Amino acid sequence: AINLTINGMAVTVPEGTTILEAASSVNINIPTLCYLNLHEMKMNNHIASCRVCMVEVEGRRNLAPSCSTPVAEGMVVKTETHRAIEARRTMVELLLSDHPKSCLTCAKNLDCELQKLAAELGVRGIPFEGEETNHPKDTSSYSIVRDPNKCIMCRRCETMCTEVQTVGVYSGSGRGFHTVVQPAFGRSLIDTACTFCGQCLAVCPTGALTEVDHVGKVWRELNNPKKTVIVQTAPAVRVALGELFGEEPGTVVTGKMVAALRRLGFDKVFDTDFAADLTIMEEASELAHRLKHEETLPILTSCCPGWVKFFEHQFPDLLDIPSSCKSPHEMFGVIAKTYLAGKMGIDPKDMVVVSVMPCVAKKYEAARPELAIKPEIPDVDIVITTRELGRMIHEAGIDFKSLKDEDFDRPLGESSGASVIFGTTGGVIEAALRTAYEWLTGSTLENVEFESLRGMEGVKSAKVTINGRTLKIGVAHGLGNARTILEGIRAGECQLDAIEIMACPGGCIGGGGQPYHHGNIEILKARAEGLYKEDRDKPIRKSHENKEILALYDEFLGKPYGEKAHELLHTSYTA
Ligand code: HC0
Ligand code: SF4
User: Fold this and answer.
1) Band of the pLDDT at 175, cuts 50, 70, 90?
2) Which ligand 2 atom is at minimum distance from the Cα of 193?
């Protein structure tokens, strides 16, 4: 252990700790901008490019960047001297001198870490006048907007994409004043292997990376009297939306969310969770089918579009192993435009399906040409993120906290506890097991909670014995962890039979469309806990016990994994 003094306080920390970490262990907050350390995600960005975390170390002439300076025995550190504070302010002023001053209209307004720091340091003017860089914006994709002029070279996006996701889209290019972090050869995102997972924008401190904004499109449809506009909400939205209105992370706001959506003018408010139950019916049937006919195993879940794009790009030789199931919100869309439109007596052309998702990849997914009834009738028309829904509620002047709980519309609004946990890593496969176990054994599963599939560990596994056969179940979240598993499969070394993969660390609760967590992993854990609580509180906890699902098969779809189900609920992949 190393003993040092910070601001006159004695501190003892393990060797190798940085000054920044040592200070934070005794609640001394040193401001940072580029630094981001997410242990659970194995992401550590401490390139010390922003120089905002400078501190005085006794005996040293120069200030030291606390994020990258390890502690030493007997060190005496001062974090709040006049010189350190002036140095920080100067660094922020320098960054601002080459930064657009369009904060009022920036997508990151009030969420920007640079803006917050400038306010905290009391920056009241920018003494450096100079040329501002002027790079074109990249609006090539359905999911992500890149504005290189707002890039402060912190390289968090690069660390996230390269080290955690192992996609490696970004790198620093150009020199000096004109340096920018961007895709190789200045390509547009659409021309790279980007999966649109959105994790780069989840960690970007400024407005350099943001989601494509579809709020205006939704308002236009809501104001079009010819259209029936219905909305569905993803599992992970209900445990994060409240954060935008001052609730603690993980607070379950399902009822208020439904009430707010009705106030916004949606004709019907439905639940993606309903369709998550439908996905389980299909996926569990597919697993049973593959087991019975000794077809390819493992089966991989296919509900995460970032993950789908990743395997299409990186493992085109393995396209036969993912489940052919469409993702729940796409299944919802197609059922809404066939079954529901029929019940309501409306032409599917006049129905608009809006998905509220924790995810920016869902925007790109909705535009995939094969996920459509006809080219002019996509399964899902518009996808907005949790943050975008928050903005709509703010815009409409709705006092979210004082709303009374309301319930989803029916049918397509009922859901089991199994569907709720889809929103966190491990939840989809746990939900599938609850159903597959009962179908395959014909007996009741008493304890529905699979503890070993829960938690923030990057790769998890469990064994379940069904009819004398031991099924090996795996879970990976974060694309780097997914790559490890896929490489094992490719090499013929993988013993697993069924695997859930989610592109985002934590699963959908950590999606790129969620309220910014600013590197605080406790927020993700609280959101997961919120979902497990909602599961425990549900009267029905298994997908195949959802009465509306059974009615849907009875009245419309026929058998799970049958002909009509195949036509509407399954898809294929392209290399
Ligand atoms: Fe998810 Fe989904 S669980 S991907 O994480 O499967 O986005 O929340 O909506 O579609 O249900 C995201 C979350 C969903 C889908 C569901 C799945
Ligand atoms: Fe990389 Fe994901 Fe960002 Fe694409 S969206 S650049 S894959 S982190």
Assistant:
1) low
2) 7
Residue nearest to atom 4 of ligand 1 (CA): 304
The domain spanning residue 299 has which CATH number?
3.40.950.10
- Measured in Å, residue 392 CA sits from the centre of ligand 1 at 21
The answer to whether residue 246 is domain-embedded is no
- Two tokens at 555? 């009245």
Section 545-565 average pLDDT = 96
Query: Residue 155 is encoded by which pair of tokens?
Result: 């390289």
**Ligand 1 pocket: which residues have CB below 6 Å?**
234-236, 272, 276, 303-304, 327-329, 357-359, 362, 422-423, 428, 507-508, 511
Q: How far is the CA of 440 from the centre of ligand 2 (A)?
A: 39
Residue 414 CA to residue 274 CA, distance in Å, equals: 6
Ligand 1 centre distance from Cα of residue 426 (Å) = 12
Nearest to 520 by CA among 38, 35, 10, 76: 38
Provide the greatest CA pair distance for the chain.
Answer: 80
Locate 24 and state its tokens: 């934070």
- Cα dihedral 157, 158, 163, 167 in deg (nearest 10): 100
Among the atoms of ligand 2, which is closest to the Cα of residue 503?
2
Protein residue closest via CA to atom 9 of ligand 1: 234
Mutate to test the pocket of ligand 2, among 138, 160, 169 (most ligand atoms within 8 A of CB): 169
Q: How far is it, in rounded angstroms, from Cα 379 to Cα 370? A: 9
- What residues does ligand 2 touch, defined as CB less than 6 Å away? 144, 160-161, 165, 167, 169, 194-200
Structural domain for 438, as ranges: 269-350+399-569
| Nearby residues of 426 by Cβ (< 8 Å), 6 or more positions away | 450, 453, 454, 455, 460, 475, 500, 507
β partners of residue 180: 173
First-residue to last-residue Cα distance in the chain: 52
- Span 170-178, average pLDDT: 72
Reported residue count of the chain is: 575
Last residue of a domain, one of 97, 115, 145: 97
* Cα–Cα distance measured from residue 135 to residue 105, given in angstroms and rounded to the nearest whole number: 18
Total count of domains within the chain = 3
8 and 75 together in one domain: yes
Residue 362, in any domain of the structure: no
Of 508, 422, 496, 510, which Cα lies nearest the Cα of 460? Answer: 496
CA of 26 to the centre of ligand 2 (A): 35
pLDDT tens per residue, range 525-544: 999 999 999 999 999 999 99
Ligand nearest to the CA of 280: 1
Q: What spacing in Å lies between the alpha carbon of 155 and ligand 1's midpoint?
A: 29
Residue 158 shares a structural domain with residue 87: no
Q: Annotated active-site positions, please?
A: 283, 286, 303, 323, 362, 365, 370, 508
Which ligand is closest in space to the CA of residue 210? 2
Report d(CA 457, CA 452) in Å as an integer.
Answer: 10
Give the pLDDT band (50/70/90) at residue 575.
Answer: confident
Question: What local confidence, expressed as pLDDT, does residue 178 receive?
Answer: 63
